[in-house]
């Protein structure tokens, strides 16, 4: 059943954005600090037992130079640098094992999967990246409220900073064509992709499926399921921090990143999604500044969205914008 | 939490089997009928947009010559015939799209995914194979009770017959080494793999994860979750058919197939599995006649079992018994 | 709590109907085919141990001449032909046992209960009628999506065709007055009754309680409970068949049958019904063409609707239109 | 799934009974008081719109002479006095409407349905009998703990006293053969039937389906579902009344009534019953003193037990012991 | 998530009230009858093992002179009469033990906690007051429908009458300043406080948190959780009593009491409250006649509302209106 | 219903303990490090608006000298130093507001409530103490798995170290008698109390209600509810860390602390507790070395245990061992 407004209403929904005055300064400082602390990524060959895929266990300098893990998967047979999909992961999971991520390399792309710091201990995929030095302030379950009273210490500041660094890391990988980087992800991964796309220039594409981390105020009014429910729990308990919390979240709202995106964007949304309600996704989509944007609507799906069907849409969409090219594989 | 006995008890659990006298005759007739009706498989190249994988849309003669669909995935770069994993699918899902099945070809194996007839309309993956001409007798939700009052018309007679035919189909595929066929699957797929392995000679290996379709009497006493719950619902309603139903199921119980397996077997089981309770899996494992058998126990997992970790176990286990070989890929 | 709009809104809800151009041809062909294949019904006396009721185990020619079972219950003491209630059954159940159906014969009516083909294996009542020769196409749990991609093979084509045949069978029963036939049922039974009433002339009345099978598009938007949820599951999985599915359902939507009903109609609806949302029922009611129609609203009930209280309403309503008559019993 | 021990263990389960020393005195005083206060029952013809059944709205003197309602249903065509089934009702429901109770009269028996005082406001059937002058002591939801600290004021003292009076009322109805009275009921009705049978001589039979009100101590240890859960809630809150409560319940435990039953008894039990766990039913059955007793086991059913199938068993069983007789109907 | 309208809509919600013509007469008679039957309260010192609090076990004449229990807690060190908070209790609980109620005496107020008759057997706190002589009419679980067909016998007539008597009792306690009485409570306690405040003159304040017992018609349309759900169950079953029930409830609706309140009022409401939906609370608040009224909105809370944060609000609010005073403690 | 073994079995349950060889060294180092880093506690008067209670907002040096907050509540009227209850808090909550903690001061004791670092953002009470510098390793929801792969970085190392420091802080508070310190808590608070009591000499008493953090291996086998379920989720995901996790937990298991306790101990346990299964509590109790120990069994309670009834038990028990004394208050 529908979990939010009907499609006609969603198509017209353009809420006002709330953005802190120093939004750009905040992020310039954050990404600048990360860039300053960066060190060369380590790519160690990893024996995943896979015949067609070359796998590297990647460690790169993330936020504030803190090490972040990832997997780099390359089609073993290739010629010349490849376009690269930098993928961010859904809530709760980590990078798992290389064979959890076979799609984009099979399609001929280089594929860099970024571990999400601190996650990967109660989802379907394990993670290998700690989130060192969080504030340790009282928090609800999960990660959405970790450090939420202070933009500088908020968890997603570090994650989004990692995400920018992941793209910059990809750009320096010899097997990757730095002019053809796509950011991608579903749910939390989609929210991170929007953030990265709002903070970075020169991306070749953005693939954001049923993105999380958008339009927090409406989200907690509309759902208590999934990670938005963690924010609800926090506000339920710490009644005196409501304004402070939403002030922090203003620096992290996908609507504000969307308004800065200029790369081509393909979003997907599901009308029966209780985890990331469609009004929050449409709000982000409508604020997206990209001249080349499209949204795929899955009317009868929940948070799984289009799943493999959406992969097909993405292959087609990317094929027109960021093709693997004749020289992509041999 | 544990959903069945503790591990020590499970390790000692060897229940008596109940087997109809004509079990072997029944299956000889079934597979003979299918073989007699067989026609050459059709392998049509399929453009899945994948650079490293060659994909064929397969249609082969299943039970009684009825067409069954599948995907054949081959590493695009290879030399010589490959060992082949014939995979059966979990309950409710169908063959989906080729990019749902990238693991075994990435590992260098030929991979034939058999669609499960009639399924794939309410799971995570769509299916493309009808189940023509079922008896249409009253049935509970799902497939477990379709035709369950008559062994000859029971749904899994057709499915298991398809499964045997899938192996025979694989043996005739030019790119496949017919002496190195492995049957594999999880949940329903694991139960089908056990059945196929009990009905076929000359298999190189059997990979059965948290298998379904074993030890029905105990299953319905221990759980009402998942597909075993459908059997419970049936017996709850049709109180006068209990004996008849269990008589039919005697022809389809994984315990009876296990007792006939001689190929190397790797089973996995999860102690917190409510869908396929571990006592039913251990019962099958303990009855397995194979001289080379092992079981991987996941003590803190539910029906997801070992997931990617189990894939690693399988790669290692197969690597010793059915290696891709130096010539497997180029 | 209310599960749909408030009553005022419901009273004004008159959505447009979507009807295939060949709707009438489709059904004329279907019922014509059934009539052509018909053979004389078999009525075998059945010893149900009941003193006041004469019971017959009925087998009649249903869709395409396929045998359909039913119970005929007659008050043992009677004089002359009786008006007859032809009753269709709720989802999941079959005809059960004769003593599950004592109301209408106790009230002095002949009562023909039609088994629903394929059902009766996981509800409260068992069934005895197979649904031979379905397409076997992949389907979700239950019956609502059995063959849903093809109007000609869709499950409810056979059921509605059976339903018409049941009335025609009743008209030929010697103890029945063929001019005083009423069709009746609750939930699925109500939906079937509306269909039969839309396809048949000369009925003396229609009793449809909380009818199912009406206004499918809204139903799946409003609820995921009960059988409409099966349709939702199907569309969730088979994302590329949405248009095809709703095209098929256009031939089976209660709104389209209601628009053809001319017999007197008594509908009931419950405002807290999550299984058959009241907007779908009001939509059917408002499209009903009958000059003599009424709707009973149960404001605080769920899918149970008026239950025994609705029986009283029906007895009164029928008493004015299809009385048993002085000669009905002796 | 099983909700209690497996059948083998249940078959051997014979727990000790706990019975207050003055059990018989307590009940002799109770029934004596009721008998002393009795006044002639009122039987008012009731127009239920039923052709084959003669219905009376009964008001009889129950506990302490308080009025209790009921329905008397008689087959309209009969000759001579009939054997009579006195039926008690399941928890939460009242006597409803006459057409809710058509089975026994259709089978040729007189049928007296006793309303359960105070109940019938949140179940499927309404009730018409107040429970005047309860102690009003704090109680959990429902009726199981109404007055539970004092045997003299406990709710079921009044109900069981009503139940005895219902049989005595039936014995004086002219159309009833007073030597052929059967008490019957399911769930709470079954528990009341056991109590009435333990308190009355000369009954022709006892039909108790999945009886409630047996072996309270085990019940609250085994289940928190249904009405036993109300007792659990009470003990959870009023921690200092545990002994007092179980002392009271000693006067009302079906085990103690069963030990006094001498009439023929047919019990049914369901092994997947969470409401009335099978160990509590077997405990009562094993303590039953009747020389002619039997138990029907429904291995795959929950609290619905055998439903219509159990009715068939009961018709057969009664047919041998309390037949309607050739003269029963005309 | 929001369980009712958004705040803007709630702020504007002023539904019409439905009030019986003899509302004032009804309550004048009720309170007059109670006053006439009153006898002097008994205050027995109670050893709760508390050093700073003097505790009395109170028994006062409630409705119709029936004894009602309570606790009186006084700060042990005090000088002169104290302002007194008369507190009513949430649904299901009773007065519990004195150390369950330490807040107001610690704040320097005298504190009289009134037991709720009949309750305290399945909540978190036990109760000690029976509800003698209810009508015993069929009722749903709980207390909301006890006697609901008759205003004179309805449960809350007795409870509200007790509540008025509790204030009158407090006014006669020597340690209490009769001019400074505040009524207070949360949920049911808040509803009782509104009723008491509508029936009594001269109160110094009213504290009603997330009050229950307001705007019944909307409540049952909006929620089926908690005690309003009991009313829904009743109406679901006893379909023919809907008008009668709402007529009774007209005498007990918080909206009608609110319209008579002149004392200062502080209400609190929670926007995610499923038990007492905010529209029902705002409706009462908007009808409140008090010139000095305020409402505290907890936007992210459920039925727990502001909890300890609301206590702080109340201390501040009372501090300005009913201060303990310099002489309050020594 | 029972959630674990019956009481007889529990009474006999004495599982082997698993203790790392360097358990004592580990804790000596931990507490030594904390002692070395300690600085004088700050006690700031706090205006909680309470007349009878003197409140201080406490900040003391916890683990590694990190600041930990707490409330000190003292009866305002007292003479001489008081015995002091040091209380630890249940899972998820923080110290809340002073008026959440009125019991022990009302009983005449000094009362130091220790905030639990990092908690208090999604429970019923807010917290004010961050958990600075955790490892940030991937973790499941909540706190039970924070840093669980490394004893030195595990969350409860810091918490238990805080707990020892809280007692040492209390001993230096002028209004407290350092020879009469009692540690107390329920659930997590009970587990912390056992740990503190195992690490400290000279305590006057230990009050542990339904303690958490005991016998982890059994806990995850028996329950998936509450915080033990977080451990289950972790092990479910990070399958390769099972041994490492249980090795860490060996340093934190209440069984090992219990074996070191010599102070008088009063434990409580609830037989229907799904959160802290009774077998885990009895295991701790049976290993407790104290010569003066007792356990209160609440047979019909869940995790709420004895609640206010247990407070009464504690007052009595403490009254004999750590009385407030005649001079305790004036």
From TrEMBL, chains A, B, C, D, E, F:
Pfam families attached here? AXE1 (PF05448)
Q: Which residues form the Acetyl xylan esterase domain?
A: 2-319
Where is the stretch described as Disordered? 121-144
Q: Which GO terms describe its molecular function?
A: carboxylic ester hydrolase activity
Positions that bind substrate: 91
Q: Where is the active site?
A: 187 (nucleophile), 273 (charge relay system), 303 (charge relay system)
User: Could you name the domain of life of the organism this protein comes from?
Assistant: Bacteria
Q: Which SUPFAM superfamilies does this chain map to?
A: alpha/beta-Hydrolases
GO process annotations (BP): polysaccharide metabolic process
User: What is this protein's name?
Assistant: Cephalosporin-C deacetylase
Which species does the entry assign this protein to?
Micromonospora echinaurantiaca
Q: Which taxonomic lineage does the organism of this UniProt entry have?
A: Bacteria, Bacillati, Actinomycetota, Actinomycetes, Micromonosporales
